[in-house]
Amino acid sequence: MTHKDLDIWKGGVGLVTEIYRLTRGFPKMENYGLASQMQRAAVSYPSNIAEGAARDSIAEYVRFVYISLGSLSELETQIIISKNLGYASDVTILLNKVETLRKMTLKFIKYLKNKMEKHG
Hints:
Layout: H1 7-24, H2 34-53, H3 58-84, H4 92-119
Helix pairs in contact: 1-2, 1-4, 2-3, 3-4
């Protein structure tokens, strides 16, 4: 099993696509501002999951999954800001996806920590 088999990774890749679609409609002045930050945070989420999976210890894997969780929280904040600025009208579906991924990621971290405890 690789990172590509994980639902959190698949969901993250899907979220990246949605964020790129959303930010396409932002004002040009945001191309290197909020739009770029949102795109980087979105890409960072599945990328850190993939990078952690390639590490040689479960502890390192957990660390990278925590980093991905931070990127997800950053993205959530940026989605709310984009709505407040009027760049996005209804972000409920996106925010729900972020929350679902957050819960799934926390469960995955718990799974990895349990696995780490069992294997020392």
